[in-house]
Amino acid sequence: MSAQGQTVKDITTLMQVGEDYVRDVIRAFNERGFDALGPKGSGGRPRTISDEVREHICLIARTSPADWRITTFSTWSLSKLAEHLVEQKVTVAISRETLRRILRAGRVSWKTTTTWKASTDPDFIAKMHRILALYDTPPAEGRVICVDEFGPLNLRPRKGKAWGPVRRPRRLRATCNRHHGVMHVLAALDLATGKLHYRIRPRKRWQELLDLLKALRDRWPGQKLYVVLDNFSPHKHAKVRAWAADNDIELVFLPTYGSWPNWIEAEFAALRYFALSGTDHRRHDEQNAVIAAYVRWRNTHAKPKTNFAPDSPIRSWTEYPAKAA
């Protein structure tokens, strides 16, 4: 209103505020811009817990009870952590809500423990760079294929996520029975097209793998195939190696305990999430049909696979890290 040329008196009449308030607002805006229009603190009670104590609380929260020689429990709850802080004279009695807010402000959150299987392969870096080189610059005369097994697939209710009414989760039956045995998916990811080729078999021996390799060989005659796969014993069977060598297929093995650079692992995660999560199939042909439908849909939308982990620290590794970061 002031920018439109209206006087302080006009603004006061229209906005039903005092003249001093209007002048203060205009003056503050001219000095600080839009920052002057933000909400103003009302003061309130001063903090009773200093920034140093808050930082100390966050440091203790990141420890485990075992670090303090506490053997009666293995993890902190908010109430147990609050009691421990009082015992250690870090602070006086503190409520769980105050403690929760302090941890949240200190970017300490409740996390699920994950596992890390360290590779014992002395040639880890060389093998990883070899695979990254195939991903980044596939040989002009050949084709890079990632192969792995997915499963075992048994018939059971599978947890999943879906949209639904608040506080009314979708229910699946609970059962401990595992009828009709298991099946296994043997799959191959073609990086040139991004398409997934697979078969479902009751076992995953070297015979099933060799059948898959023969099907891949027939699909792309005349091209050398670079097959990336892990160190599962059927993959290294003498008959598999011999047949591959005789049919212009190079088996490129991943580092020991290092299957995560296999690009097909990401496809298996998507298959599990979109095709199997939240399902409860009673027959294998039912479940196999769902997997087939998903793969058909996926392959119609497939694109060449490029840019594998372009910003990942693995590309700058010169030695294998001793533990997970």
Automatic annotation (TrEMBL):
Residues 143-277 form the Tc1-like transposase DDE domain. InterPro entries: Homeodomain-like_sf, RNaseH-like_sf, RNaseH_sf, Tc1-like_DDE_dom, Transpos_IS630-like. It comes from the Bacteria. This is IS630 family transposase. The lineage of its organism: Bacteria, Bacillati, Actinomycetota, Actinomycetes, Kitasatosporales.
